[in-house]
Structure formats: C-alpha cells, structure tokens
Amino acid sequence: MEKRIIHIDMDAFYAQVEQHDNPELKGKPVIVGGRSFNRGVVATASYEARKFGVHSAMPTKTAHKLCPDGIFVHPRFERYKEISAQIREIFLSYTELIEPLSLDEAYLDITELVSKETSSREIALSIQSDIFEKTGLTSSSGISYNKYLAKIASGMNKPKATTVIHYDNVLEILHALPICKFPGVGKVTEEKMLGLGIKNGKDLYDISKNDLILKFGKRGESLYNKARGIGTNELTVQRERKSVGKETTFNYDRNDDKEILGVLEDLSNKVGIRLDDRQLAGRVVTVKIKTGDFETHSKQMMTMDPVFKGEDIYHYAYNLYHEVKEQDVPIRLIGVTVSSIEERLYRNMTIYDFIMQ
Ligand code: DCP
Ligand code: MG
C-alpha cells in the first residue's frame, strides 16, 4: 500500500529561536555560531542573513566579510533541546511512528491518519500550526510516498511551506532539482557530479545504472533510484523508552546534604513531570552520584507501587541518597532515574490503582 510520509524541518532553527527569545533580533541578519573570528564556524543564519550569502558551516570570518552588519550570537544548545522536546511531544500527539533525524527535523508516517475527510496536507498544516502555537516558531513540511522525497519536498519552498510530491509530479520536480539538493549528495559528491557534467536530476536520470556504479561504487544504485523517485518508506522508529532520568553536574563539588537534596528533589519532580506527560509510571528508582574524583556510585530499589509523582520519586530517592552518599566525600553529579516503565491506563491513576478499585 502507498504510504504517506511527512518530513518536518524547522526554518533556520537556531537563528529563529534566538529571534523569538530576543525580539530585538527579529527581522535582522542573525548569525548563530562560534564567535571566534579566526576559528568560529556558522551553525546557521536567519533568512535575513542568508540574503548576503551566509550559510551553515561557513567560517565566521567569511560571514563577517559578507555581512558586516550581521548580529553574531553564540548557540544555546540547552534551549534548542528544550524546544526539540516540545516539538517531539506534538509529533507524539499525532503518531508514534516518528524517526527523528536531528533536533529540528523528523519523519512521521501518517498513512493511518489520512482519510477521506482529512488529507495529508491538512495533517501537515495542523502539525505546523501546533508547533507555532506551542513554540512561536515556523517550520516547513514535505509530504510524499517515501522518505527522501518527503525530505526534498520540505526543502523546496522554505520557509513556512507545505509541499507535496506525488507520482504525477515527481519526475518533473526531480529533473529540475540541482544535484546538491538530493539527500546524500554532500560537497564531495557534488563536486564529482559537476565534474561529470551532472548538474541536476535530469542529468542524473540520463546516466545508466552501470555507469553510476562504475563511478560511485555501491552508492551508484541508490543514486540511480533517487533519480527515479524510488526510495524506502520504512521509518526507523525509536524503541520504546525503558527509563526516564534526569541528572545535574554541579559547577563545583558539593558536600552539603541539604543543598544536594534540594537538587535531588528538583530532579525528582522533573522526572515526575516527564512520566506524567507520557502517561507512564515506573517500578524502580535509581540514584546515581559521581564523586569529585569521578567515581560513579548508584543504588536502586523496587517501589511499592509504580511511581510517577515527583514527591513519590523523591521519597525513594531521598532514602537511596543516604545509602549511596558517603560523608565528607563531595560529589560533582547527581541523577535520578525511574525504570521498569509501564503505561498508566488513566492519567492520574496507575494500573495498580485501577486494579485495586
Ligand atoms: N546546524 C549546524 N551546523 C550545520 C548545519 C546545521 O550546527 N552545518 C544546526 C543549526 C541549524 C540546525 O542544525 O539551525 C538545523 O539544521 P538545518 O539544516 O535544518 O538548517 P536550519 O534549520 O538552520 O535552516 P533551514 O530553514 O534551511 O532548515
Ligand atoms: Mg531546519
């Protein structure tokens, strides 16, 4: 059966986050990356900066030359990860068939969600609007019957676009596509292609499979298929989560129980929120510490009931901490994990509660 795959990719991700969090940067050429003039590299640039020719992986020095009025910003990975997790939650509210590719892009298999009443385009638009509502950020999506075509589609009309490639228009689109836009064709392959006179998908289409294998070895066949709209539609879905944990590394070694327990309580609450959001609970709590001289120690115990509330997790974590922490040995890291995970039938009830009623 024909599948419907969406590829979603945030627009100018890091730069857009910086513009969102600091409205003074809106509408301005923002360049995120290493600010060191001699060694820094651009991670990404806002669309305003791209007009000057600035792009990912370019040395900061070159970006300065091309765009002297650019605003150079250091990346804040924690923030990008946080937004990535929010986006993941939105995907999960549609389907569990998700293959994340990086912080800002993923494939979703929405075959089962498409119906007479709801087209794949409508589903894509709805996901994009949920993302905007939750994060204030725009994204682009591509829809097709396999993965690499969905990825090509999402890049075709960026930003804020939704693009469909189907059997009727696939060859027309692929023929006109510059060779560097084919997934898997990096800088080196592009150079080699251009050297052989292959500038676009049409040039690639016109080369025989044998010649491609001769020139590109094992990848020849895949390139031959890519020129023809042939590719896999099977997602590599992440395995079900086996544990939920949080840890903190201190900026100096700590020994004060009260202080450390405060952090442990905070971590327990965060783990609780994550479990609760996913309607999960777990039967084993583990506390891990790393001492100032990098020794790792951990202790775990079974819980009476499956736990998911921060306060319950902390109750176990508190006792485990006292078992694992040695007096007068400062620690640099503490973490708490809940494992042996199971699903909760109802939002505020564990399966156990349910059976007991
Ligand atoms: N990134 C990076 N170094 C690269 C490429 C990307 O650090 N060489 C980071 C910064 C990007 C993020 O990954 O914001 C996502 O990469 P994309 O390729 O999706 O690029 P953008 O989201 O920035 O822009 P686009 O609108 O083209 O997707
Ligand atoms: Mg992107």
TrEMBL record:
**What does it catalyze?**
DNA(n) + a 2'-deoxyribonucleoside 5'-triphosphate = DNA(n+1) + diphosphate
Positions the record marks as coiled coil are none
Site positions (Substrate discrimination) are Y14
**Quick check: keyword Magnesium in the entry?**
yes
Q: Which GO terms describe its biological process?
A: DNA repair; DNA-templated DNA replication; error-prone translesion synthesis; SOS response
Please state the Enzyme Commission number of this protein.
Answer: 2.7.7.7
Q: Cellular location of this protein?
A: Cytoplasm
The note on the cofactor says: Binds 2 magnesium ions per subunit.
Q: State its cofactor.
A: Mg(2+)
Primary enzyme class: transferase
Per the record, the domain of life is Bacteria
Query: Which keywords annotate this record?
Result: Cytoplasm, DNA damage, DNA repair, DNA replication, DNA-binding, DNA-directed DNA polymerase, Magnesium, Metal-binding, Mutator protein, Nucleotidyltransferase, Transferase
Residues at the active site: E105
What binding partners and quaternary form does the record give? Monomer.
Physiological role: Poorly processive, error-prone DNA polymerase involved in untargeted mutagenesis. Copies undamaged DNA at stalled replication forks, which arise in vivo from mismatched or misaligned primer ends. These misaligned primers can be extended by PolIV. Exhibits no 3'-5' exonuclease (proofreading) activity. May be involved in translesional synthesis, in conjunction with the beta clamp from PolIII.
Its family remark reads: Belongs to the DNA polymerase type-Y family.
Q: What is this protein called?
A: DNA polymerase IV
